Amino acid sequence: MLSSARKRLTAGVLAVAAAAAGTLVAVTPAPEASAAGTVENVYSRAMHRSVPVQIIDGGGSGAKPTLYLLDGLRAPNDTSGWLQNTNVDKYMAGKGTNVAIPFGGAGSFYTNWERRDPKLGLNKWETFLTKELPAYMKKRHNSDNRRNGIAGLSMSGTAALNLASRHPSFYKAVASYSGYPTVTMPGFGQGIQAAVMEMGGNPVNMWGIWPAGQWAANDPFLTAGNLAGKRVYVSSGTGVGSKYDSSLTPGSPRFNPTKFAQMVPLEVAASTSSQLYIARLATVPGVKLTTNITPDGAHWWDYWGARFKQSWKTTFRPAFF
Predict the structure, then answer these.
(1) Does the annotation count 167 as an active-site position?
(2) What is d(CA 90, CA 70) in angstroms, rounded to the nearest whole number?
(3) CA-based angle 97:100:102, to the nearest 5?
(4) How far apart are CA 140 and CA 90, in angstroms?
(5) Strand pairing of 288-294 and 38-44?
(6) 173-203 as b/e, with b when 16 or more CB fall inside 10 Å?
(7) Catalytic residue among 80, 242, 299, 311
(8) Which of these is catalytic: 108, 154, 176, 311?
(9) How far apart are CA 220 and CA 225, in angstroms?
(10) Model's pTM, two decimal places?
(11) What are phi and psi of 91, to 5 degrees?
């Protein structure tokens, strides 16, 4: 049986491999259908610019809960992967909940950076997501700013857990799909730095020099105790095969070893990190935890769309209503 230290080292190696593999994956997103809701430009004083946000209004005249849905590492500035690759916007229509899907944030980990970055610019996403956007949602869409949830995948799965831990009085529920919540563990820290650099940013401008600076303060594993009493959903696959894509399944006539080598390490690392985090949450009193760690799973939207719908039923809806 592997020692704890050796397990962390193995996880670290996988995390670095995942960050490196991300440069190779080139999967064409599904054509974007007409999205539910409207795009509204929300001004961020902290970031000195407007941020486009797809907003699905929960309807009705009463105060409503709000679910904030974050994009992944390559988040474009003019849409969201959630809109390009899933139907969660239409799925959430009519459910009495405001849904806010901000555009942009590529490589930012949706956090407040210590310094402006020459490539990625001024990132104050934490301020935007916990103060500026909620104020807008309350004024324009009657959000009650009391029943709030946040969810994300991969990079933003890490970010969602981080924001929920840093602002436990604001969020009632949080979900991570294939996230990497062991931020300061050796290997994972290097993987996060590599991900930021992949998008052209300097990770030192984000949280300082690892593992000093603000790294520990933004590590969901270390701050998990703040989620006592919250509803939490954590999912990932092992990366071995995919029920949605036979080209990732060894033994299939369509098996593509190159694609397998590109995409599998991302999910294997997410699985390792997520399971370490789940074990940490098991020590936190009062956490209402739902997990879905499957023996298959690619690091891709087929799984994240399905896991979102599961988390709505098990985690967000019970927290809101």
Answers:
(1) no
(2) 16
(3) 170
(4) 20
(5) unpaired
(6) bbbbbbbbbbbbbbbbbbbbbbbbebbebeb
(7) 299
(8) 154
(9) 9
(10) 0.91
(11) -60, -35
- DSSP summary character for residue 227: G
- For residue 41, which of 102, 108, 114, 115 has the smallest C-alpha distance? 102
Among 267, 271, 274, 311, the active-site one is 267
Question: How confident is the chain (321 residues) per 10-residue block, as mean pLDDT?
Answer: 44 44 38 77 98 97 97 98 98 98 98 98 98 98 98 98 98 98 97 97 98 98 98 94 91 92 90 98 97 94 97 98 98
154 is catalytic: yes
For residue 121 the two structure tokens come to: 């610019």
Find the angle CA(19)-CA(151)-CA(183) to the nearest 5 degrees: 40
Is 198 a known active-site residue?
no
Smallest CA-to-CA distance from 89 within 1, 289, 98, 260 is with 98
Listing DSSP states for 33-92 in one string gives: PPPSSEEEEEEETTTTEEEEEEEE---SSS-EEEEEE---TT--SSS-HHHHH--HHHHH
Q: Kindly report the backbone phi and psi dihedral angles of residue 155, in degrees, each rounded to the nearest multiple of 5, phi listed first.
A: -50, -45
